[in-house]
Amino acid sequence: MQLFEPSHYAAFDQPKPKLDDLATRFERTKVKEVFLELHSMIWPHISSMNWDLHRHRQVNHYVSSDHFVFLEDGTPIVNYIDGMWLHYGKSPSQLDFIKLIGGFDYKKRNDEDYFNAFYLHTRIQFYINDSIFRAWLLLATDKNYYDRSELLRRLSKDRAERTQFFYLVKPLFNKDFFYEIDDRTLPLTSALTEDAFIKFVRSDTPGIYSGIVKEYDPMNMQLEVSNIKTEMVENLNLLYPLYNFMSWRPKLKP
Fold it and tell me: Taking the domains of the chain in order of start, what are their residue ranges?
């Protein structure tokens, strides 16, 4: 039995992503409930590891929105929902500091309504759409520049940083992970050289999504109720050292 059933993927079938009626919201609410089940399975491990990896400060936003959200001026944060995710990332104090220094993520935004821009930053997330499930270290969204620009600066400036990055990615080799930049992908396999890896990562540019991904077909046995906790904890163990390297954070206590 799969934790995420066919009905959960069907919540994102066309034309539902652009609908926000009660019936469509109800389907998305069911997806959110299953993500919270997954959270209850894996959060004890995250907590026990003493990682610098955090839940959203608001319980209601541990999982991405199941309905359309608008700012007070009527500007949409989302006006379609073609997927949902459970995510872990920066601490409230780290996000508050980025706001304090004038982070791009907060320009002309109401902080409380915008959920402190948690989802714009580097996160480890578990994602579902109409056809696939992902374990995903998302470096940056199309609207974020802190994580991306700082990583690219470090990789350009310091050979030791490039070597360390390649060393950290090696445990993912031959485990079906790939590095993704917009619609381009680089399989993470033992045939990959440091130079080829760094060249691909440095081809990242603002205005797109990028990160490290592992995808699962909906019927993959690793997504069964009896297996998914072990599989996603293993993904967390593999991805966290890379999150720790790639995520730009001020040196603050959580």
Answer: 6-246
Indicate left, alpha or beta for 195 from its phi (over 0: left) and psi (-120 to 50: alpha).
Answer: alpha
Residues 98-145 pLDDT 10s: 777 665 444 444 444 444 567 778 999 999 999 999 999 998 776 666
CA 120 to chain CA centroid, Å, is: 9
pLDDT value of position 178: 98
> pTM for this structure?
0.91
Alpha-helix runs per DSSP H in 49-120:
92-100
Does the domain at residues 6-246 carry the CATH identifier 3.30.930.20?
A: yes
Contact 150/248 with Cβ under 8 angstroms?
A: yes
Give the C-alpha separation, 84 to 176, whole Å: 22
174 — alpha (psi -120 to 50), left (phi > 0) or beta? left
The DSSP-derived string for 197-251 is HHHHHTT--TTS-EEEEEEE-TT-GGGBTTTHHHHHHHHHHHHHHHHHHHS---S
Residues 6+ apart with CB under 8 A from 158: none
pLDDT in tens, 20-67: 999 999 999 999 999 999 999 999 999 999 999 999 988 988 999 999
In sequence order, what DSSP letters do the residues of 136-194 get, joined into one string? EEEEE-TT--HHHHHHHHHHHH-HHHHHHHHHHHGGGTTTTEEEEETTEEEE--TT--H
Distances (CA, A) of 61 to 34, 54, 95, 112, 245: 14, 12, 15, 12, 25
